[in-house]
Amino acid sequence: MLSNYIKIALRNMWRNKGFTIISVLGLALGMACCLFILFWVQDEILHDRQYDNSDRLYRVMENQHYSGNQIFTVQATPGLLAEALNKEVPEIENAVNVTWGGDYELIRVNDKTDKERGLYAGANFFKVFSIKLISGSAETALTSPTSIVISEKIAKKYFGSENPIGKTVQFNDTLSLQVTAVVKDAAKTSSLKFDFIAPVIIYERSNTWLKHWSNNGIRTFVVLKENASVDKVQVKIKNFLRTKQKDITTDLFLQSFGDSYLHGRFENGVSTGGRIEYVRLFSVVAVFILLIACINFMNLATARSARRAKEVGIRKVVGAPRQFLIGQFMGEAIMISLVSILLSLGVVQLLLPVFNSVTGKEIVIEYTNLLFWVYLVGLAILTGVLSGSYPALFLSSLKPVVVLKGVLKFDSKSIIFRKGLVVFQFCLSILLIVGTIVVYRQVNFIKSKNLGFNKENLILLTLDGDLRKNYEVFKQDILQTSSIKAVTQSTTNPIEIGNNTEDVTWPGKQSDEKILFTNLFIGHDFVKTMGVTIKEGRDFSSARVSDTAGFIINEETVRRMKLTKNAVGTVITMWDIKGPIIGVVKDFHINSLHSAIEPLIMVLRPEWGKVALVRTEAGKTQEAIAALSTAFKKYNPKYPFKYEFEDENYRQLYKNEMMVGQLANYFAVLGIFISCLGLFGLAMFIAEQRTKEIGVRKVLGASVTNIVGMLSKDFLKLVMIAAIIAFPLAWFAMNKWLQNFAYRVELSWWIFLIAGFTAMLIALITVSFQAIKAAVANPVKSLRNQ
């Protein structure tokens, strides 16, 4: 029986090559899209879940309370917290301090030197994170303050084939550290990015402020004991910081480390999503596009039903039961689906490098994984059953006494169902079109928005090694070059400021008022170099020594402090710094557009500078880089010359949105193309059903234009119905997505008009081909059987 199904299916596929090609193409493209998204979703879901104790691994979070019932959620914690948790909370098996992972330090081994990315972590790091060691002991790898753990990549880079254990590396040209372990390279699906791990005590020596309960600047991770209740631990640690220092009003809570990547956004102390929204979005898109492909197959199979009707009638006359016919047609659909899945796999393999480039992934198809083939065959069978179910049930239900007379008519329910499929297809297509337009506009808005400073022609250098102490001569040297306009320094990149404090007082502040202020310590010429606008007062001046006790604030700080008149000259205090406000700058964005502009306080502290910002002349970037390189090597010869463009750093803040925008474009085009194949199938079906009517109309004098218009208008009605259904759904979905941005584009009416018009135009072009073909056909052929 099975072999018979296969023979019949192959015979029909070969006999109807055009139908087979279109059906296979539609299903293959839909499956390829589905596979791409499934690979991406799987990679996202597995992020940070590769550790042996993932079910017991948590990160410690803070809910900081401020005036107006505002809650600010961060993962920064005091440096003293890990040790205290280990001692005072018995349910915690291990707690460890870990830095942020953005530290690039100089590594030197003999004549090989470069800056490498690493972490600083506590001695029990490997008891919390089960990272595989290639050599060395996890128990002792970080117990010594002169130890260092390196990755496999770094071991090969600096030691070649030698065993690095016990060898010495020069660290920032100030410390000699001994390699105690070599670990596997950090997984792409891990949030812990590092090429080395150094003892956290090294970091603490240069950041003594970590040893205060009121200062946050490091991450804390914990592993709970087996069978420990996370709810009980949550209760115990909630007020933990309040017991250490009376004026602290911060709550602690635990978040599963495996959830932190996908659920990283918090509002008022509650998790409100994050990347999980993109996982859900693209999962829905995958299902939708696969449905579009299946509907396309249904419409094509229905369009061919008139040619298969007599076959069904004859088989029934000779005794074929209905279940046999259902099995036959389902078998054909599954055969086409299996061919399609193989073609889709080829498409995926061919385009996988492009997909990885767009998404920033390193996805590899595991052909040797048996489970992969099980899923692949399962997807093919599911698609075959879904797409072949309606044609199989419909064709097998035909009555031989009717179809053998040569007349095949469809009741209104069947026609409505098929038209409903087209409406559904184009509803999804219009959703994709609207989504693509909105995402494009928001991304373009991000790129072009006036940030309050000029991000173009701005180069950022890290003040490493001797460059910090030689900064002034370095600055004067490069300013002699005509390609460089201005130079300044600050404690951090101005578009990613992570420093803030509530320890600020000003005239009129209420005793219970708590506001979080972002703080930035800068050098001279910061305002000039950044292109920030002074609204009131003046910039810091190198001629005034007293400016080190002054402040420059932004407009948002003026509003928060309610200094509506004469803000300049008002004396405020931040920490132990007391002095007047000497200038007010117009608001400029100090973080991504996801967040509203925060109140900012800037203090003159050139000696604290960690990065240099260099403003270059437009069109002279390469000349400026050459001058910077020469001066850098002159004043900091031990370090490699590395630099960043600030406009590129800004774009990196929105890499997720840009990725979504690119994928949305591809999926929209794909969905529309598959929908057009389905519409083409229905047009074939309608034209075939109305062949006699078209012949009569032509005999009575109807022109080709009349007939094309008659056939096309019905389809345009279907697209209009799809638009009416899709518009409110699209508005709801895109409005929700735009809520992730504090600054966003408006959902203008013309977006929906363009989407609807585009869908109608595409439908008209698709239908016109078949309509013209039917209109120019010889009426003699269509009427000769009457």
Automatic annotation (TrEMBL):
Residues 284-399, 667-778 form the ABC3 transporter permease C-terminal domain. This is ABC-type antimicrobial peptide transport system, permease component. InterPro entries: ABC3_permease_C (IPR003838), MacB_PCD (IPR025857), Macrolide_Exporter_MacB (IPR050250). The chain crosses the membrane at residues 21-41, 281-303, 324-352, 372-395, 416-440, 666-687, 715-734, 749-772. One of its GO terms (molecular function) is transmembrane transporter activity. It is found in: Cell membrane. Keywords: Cell membrane, Membrane, Transmembrane, Transmembrane helix. Residues 20-239 form the MacB-like periplasmic core domain. GO terms for cellular component: plasma membrane. It is a multi-pass membrane protein. Its main location: membrane. Pfam families: FtsX, MacB_PCD.
